[in-house]
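Batch 3, record 17
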Amino acid sequence: MSLRIESRDRSVTAYLTGEIDHHIAAAIRNDIDYSVRDTGAVELILDFSGVTFMDSSGIGLVMGRYRLMNEMGGSVIVQDPPHNIKKVMKLSGIDRLAEIRNSTEEESK
Amino acid sequence: MNIENEMKLSFKSLSRNEGFARTAVCAFAAQLDPDTEEISDIRTAVSEAVTNCIVHAYRNRTGTIELVCRILENRELYIRVRDRGCGIENVAKAMEPLFTTAACEERAGLGFAVMESFMDKLKVTSAVGRGTSVIMRKRIGGKNE
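Prediction for the assembled complex:
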């Protein structure tokens, strides 16, 4: 698992890669939350395109970030989740809290 | 119940073993030649069951998690994850989606819902102070027939 964070104009993008489970979720969320608070971000994009595995720990991660962004008056976007991860997301109903977006569609508009 | 093949594992309830457990089960299940969606379902369900043992059963201590995998008749994969931890007082309540006793650790309360939805059968038995046993079954290749 690796995490790369980019921020500009009060928008933070976290590129997640590898496997997201309970073991690594705690470390990821601390790094993301630090960046969000540090930059006063109003938009958090969680990019899942490089994620190869995710269990419900990943849902907990999105829910927790939703709470944080809500507190800060901002929003969370889940970007490019692969097919097998969409299945867990669909089951959780997380799309009610965060917009699930396909970045390639966005660019072609 | 004819057991065509079986493997048993026992490991410490350390979070770094979550990845080990799901990989081991998928390696064993590979002999049934599951497709990528079936592998993903099994991997996710095992991860949930093992994480439950680590987060809940052995909350403030380290214990042993026992994992048994069997190949049964008709290409059915049987997985049992057992702990000797604190047990669950109300199994029906624990299985309700979004119910969690570990909200501060950002647990979504979806573990059993994922296991139930990704596997064909799920059976949970528990005794307070004695531990919990989770049995999951999934027929591999079933949907192509």
